[in-house]
Amino acid sequence: MAGRGPAPKDPAKRRRRNASEPDTVLTPDDELRGPELPEGVLGVDEDTGLLVEWHPRTVAWWNSWRTSPVAQTFVATDWDFLIDTALMHHTMWAKGRWEFASEVRLRAAKFGATPEDRARLKLKVDDPTSAPQRPAQRSDGVTDINSRRARLTG
Length: 154
Prior knowledge:
39% of the residues lie in helices and 4% in strands. The chain is built from 6 helices and 2 strands; from the N terminus they run H-E-H-H-H-H-E-H.
């Protein structure tokens, strides 16, 4: 009697041959990219008759995106999408509408907001300060406690 399912494939043909794509390595350069937050999109304050300004947390959030190494990869449509996200971010902070927080998080994740998001997107930010450091050496030539003991007792 036959077994269940199809016959096993030849092991040589069954192996996965697709290699994983290499990470895109980005180097921070502190360059300011993208547009300023647009003026006048938030409307007019009914009490003062003045244009509503962006919430300070949203301005800080926007500037962190503009100086982020990930911004090197953004095109015009990415910035448009982030402006829409900034409107949600402003509403969240200015009006306490925290139901927007999950949508802001999902939208920011598409651009690599957290280390986990960047790993999923295969983006790696190269930190120039993370180069291997030499162990600190004292001016008297002692590099570890054993050599110091030997020098003091010997």
